[in-house]
Design goal:
alpha+beta; Aminopeptidase; Alpha-Beta Plaits; six-stranded mixed sheet; four-stranded antiparallel sheet; 13 helices
Length: about 450
Amino acid sequence: MDKVKVYIAEHKDRFVNELFDLLRIPSISAQSEHKPDMVRCAEWLAAALKKAGADRSEVLPTKGNPVVYAEKIVDPKAKTVLVYGHYDVMPVDPREEWRTEPFEPVVKDGRIWARGADDDKGQLWMHAKAFEAMCATDSLPCNVKFMLEGEEEIGSPSLYQFCRDNKEMLKADIILVSDTSMISMQTPSITCGLRGLAYMEVEVTGPDKDLHSGLFGGAVANPANVLTRLVSQLVDENGHITIPGFYDDVRELSPAERKAFNEAPFSIEEYKKSLSIGDVEGEAGYTTLERTGVRPSLDVNGIWGGYIEEGTKTVIPSRASAKISMRLVPNQDYQKISKLFEQHFKSIAPKSVTVKVLSLHGGMPYVSPTDMPAYKAAEKAVEDTFGKKPLPFYSGGSIPIISGFESILGIKSLLIGFGLAEDAIHSPNESYGLDQFYKGVDTIPLFYKYFAESK
């Protein structure tokens, strides 16, 4: 591994400059006008992995955005690692809140500022460069396969079928993923659990056209008023989700499990300060760590209806809509929850409006065992790099395809991410610390070494 470390040190500036070229491609999967950028980004990555040392690297079509697949087989008898990442990024809205150009990366205060700097281009690029370093120094101890998709931010709709169609090609001993975060640089962690997701869209319709709020106000149901009323009924004053049957499959942690879970370093005052909020809020009887890691939640992600432009227009809107996400915990089935949500939302709506409910996408929760060889190898690799044994950590986020990998391919995933809360993924001014990037590139080859040695 000494040769690998020397190679990384000699080429680290180039690694970042290449990442900048990747970040400049506006690969926003949620917006159809960026379809050509999705293809361009996939082709760029395929060429980069070929140059890094892959024997095979190509762009494979799906019903949606293409998948980049690459591999290097050093020995058919050796262990095989399948690296998963995604090259699509979130929209940049609200654009006016960015302090830099979202697709013109810059380094400032020791951080790379750009959309995708962390999620997930910066993190997948660590794997590409660690792979390059091992290939260049003839130090690669495992077979490596890359599967980089372009639809994670919209629920990976095409990747499930891609996996079903390519089971033989994707055979591996472990799926290696860097699309998660650590507790901090001082307290490294490995994600051993992800919440599931049920993502809904609701539409409330009243009159067949917008109406004058003076002539009809007080006599006709206002869909925007009704929608806000309905939304407010989904969570009660104790932060408890009111959908009947919602908690039926939630496993309550034992007192010992709760105690262990809350031993992770956490300052509520620093948390509030970092978010510029006066206080936290959530399900009564649970800590902030529990609320974001092992308890389900429901949030409005967007709400609209009526006139929202400059000036005034006194109307009762014909329609009002909202997007609502529910984060789920182990044992909760997103399809069941989606149906329960639809039934409940329609049941509480008054007869003065009609309601439409759509399930946009979702995924199952995931638990990564801490006793599997890959976890132990990652634990040792992180300890070598950070000088401290990483803590197992349950993330509040969701990567729906991870549970899909297990059900379709029969392979467990190892979630060894190097993001931090301050990276502001999905928000304006996303960034990624240079130290985080370099630590990741240093850690990944050590994981391969220890995984190859494991039994």
